[in-house]
Design goal:
Length: 511
């Protein structure tokens, strides 16, 4: 039917052939012979075979893609393994060189041959080398600086600790940004250092920032809940020391929620948190609740491996303090001695934790009437505090109060008064007005003035401290009883029998 004769069928036979080819799904003469046309006809005639061929091709391509992807992952894993191996080799070489510092052998590169080398000297040697040795690998450099800084902190060398931890934090922030787990962990240790120095205002924002990072990271597969728990616990301690007890307990309970995600030795974090919560209970006068939590903490530590942990010392010291306050002196003493021994082994003679334990022991010996042992314990504690803590640190101030109480018992009330006036004023500035540390210092000051027969000066201190402790600790708390007994002693020595009788009625409720 085409107008052009050359494009018409030449015969009926040719037309019939095209019809037959069309019905069979083959190309026809009437259509332009293109690849697309011929291919569509071929597919139409061989749908099953073509479909199978397509599936085979897809499978081959998919397999090839998986193979390529797996090869890429394998290369990445290989590169990562090689990087980790190189990292380990660099650190191993560094540690061998560092240990050689304490090796007196002829083959050693050490510098202290024939001499006893202290941990502090090894730290100094490491600190002097790490920046130069790993200048080309900032990640390793920052990790080592963080470890060195943390070790300095436990040595009581807080300025050196802070310097290295800040350097590590700056490097981590440059490498990963300021919201990375490496940065969060460094913030934790830096906060611990400032807290140990008594710089609560400096520590608090560091803990807050670290906690913010861990709260966002807790869904991450690589998330380490033990550090989250540590940050929450330490921030809780800051809140406790600044008088925000509800916030402190909320943070400790937030940390305890992580218990199900911890296993093995990481569960030490839960033992530490329970110890912190126990200290909060003790501060608000709940000695029975504090004792129960400390015992839970001790049991948690006992379920872990046999490796000695200095943190157990805090639980033993805290439990010993509570038991001594409750009058269970024979039970408290071995716990305190065990805690001190653990601190000496793990942290050395300059540890503020050891000093705090010895201060508690001094109070225990004072209660037992063993003045010589009390003097020996407080002397060592005071030496430690003077080396590692600023004058305004609450723990050091509490040690001064205990020292003054011993002076008062040995007839040196005038010297005790000087110490107690200074300590009570400083505690009033460092802690909330209602804190029992401050009230205890004022009560001891009243006792010192009573011993000097300055009754009119002693009375306001003794009344104020008794009322404060009755409010913060409870009317039947042993700490309250001590303040009440001092007030009664004042009135009896002052020949004010009526006032003594009035307060002696309050004393009856303790029986």
């Amino acid at each position: 039917m085409r107008k052009e004769p050359v494009r018409r069928y030449a015969s009926v036979g040719q037309f019939a052939e095209d019809i037959r080819r069309h019905l069979e799904g083959r190309p026809v003469v009437a259509r332009k012979d293109t690849f697309h046309y011929r291919a569509s006809k071929f597919v139409g005639r061989n749908k099953v075979a073509v479909a199978a061929a397509v599936m085979l091709v897809i499978a081959v391509l998919a397999g090839l893609a998986v193979t390529v992807w797996e090869a890429r992952v394998a290369r990445q894993e290989r590169d990562r393994a090689r990087a980790e191996q190189a990292k380990a080799q660099r650190i191993n070489a560094f540690m061998q060189d560092l240990l050689g510092f304490a090796n007196p052998g002829w083959y050693s590169p050490g510098l202290k041959k024939g001499q006893e080398v202290t941990i502090g000297q090894v730290l100094d040697e490491a600190a002097g080398k790490v920046e130069k040795e790993f200048a080309d690998q900032p990640q390793i450099q920052a990790e080592l600086q963080r470890n060195i800084g943390t070790s300095y902190m436990y040595e009581g060398r807080y300025d050196a600790a802070e310097r290295h931890l800040r350097a590590a934090l700056e490097t981590f922030n440059k490498l990963h940004g300021d919201d990375d787990p490496d940065s969060a962990r460094t913030l934790l240790h830096l906060g611990d250092t400032l807290l140990s120095k008594g710089d609560l205002r400096g520590a608090e924002p560091l803990y807050n920032r670290a906690l913010e990072i861990y709260r966002k990271e807790k869904a991450n597969a690589a998330f380490e809940p033990r550090w989250y728990a540590a940050v929450a616990a330490d921030l809780g301690n800051v809140n406790k020391m600044t008088g925000n007890a509800p916030a402190a307990e909320a943070l400790w309970n937030e940390a305890l929620v992580l218990a199900s995600r911890l296993s093995g030795d990481d569960r030490a974090a839960m033992a530490i948190v329970r110890g912190s919560l126990a200290s909060g209970y003790s501060d608000r006068g709940d000695l029975d609740g504090a004792e129960a939590l400390y015992r839970q903490s001790q049991e948690e530590f006992n379920t872990l491996s046999n490796r000695e942990r200095w943190e157990l010392g805090a639980t033993l010291s805290g439990l010993g303090d509570v038991l001594a306050t409750k009058g269970k002196l024979e039970e408290a003493e071995p716990l305190l001695r065990s805690g001190a021994e653990l601190y000496r082994k793990s942290l050395g003679a300059n540890s503020a934790y050891l000093g705090r334990n010895l201060e508690i022991q001094a109070r225990l010996f004072l209660l037992k009437g063993d003045i010589a042992a009390a003097e020996e314990a407080i002397r060592e504690a005071t030496d430690i505090f003077e080396r590692v803590l600023p004058e305004s640190h609450p723990v050091r101030l509490v040690g001064a109060v205990t020292q003054a109480r011993i002076l008062n018992k040995t007839g040196r009330s005038d010297a005790a008064e000087v110490i107690l006036r200074k300590a009570s004023d400083a505690l009033g500035r460092a802690l909330p007005p209602s804190h029992y540390y401050t009230a205890g210092a004022k009560s001891a000051l009243g006792e010192s003035l009573t011993a000097q027969q300055r009754y009119d000066e002693a009375e306001p201190f003794l009344i104020e401290s008794y009322e404060s402790l009755k409010s913060s600790q409870g009317a039947t708390n042993p700490r309250t009883k001590v303040a009440l007994q001092r007030l009664i002693d004042l009135y009896e020595k002052w020949d004010r029998a009526d006032a003594a009788t009035k307060y002696r009625a309050d004393l009856a409720q303790f029986k």
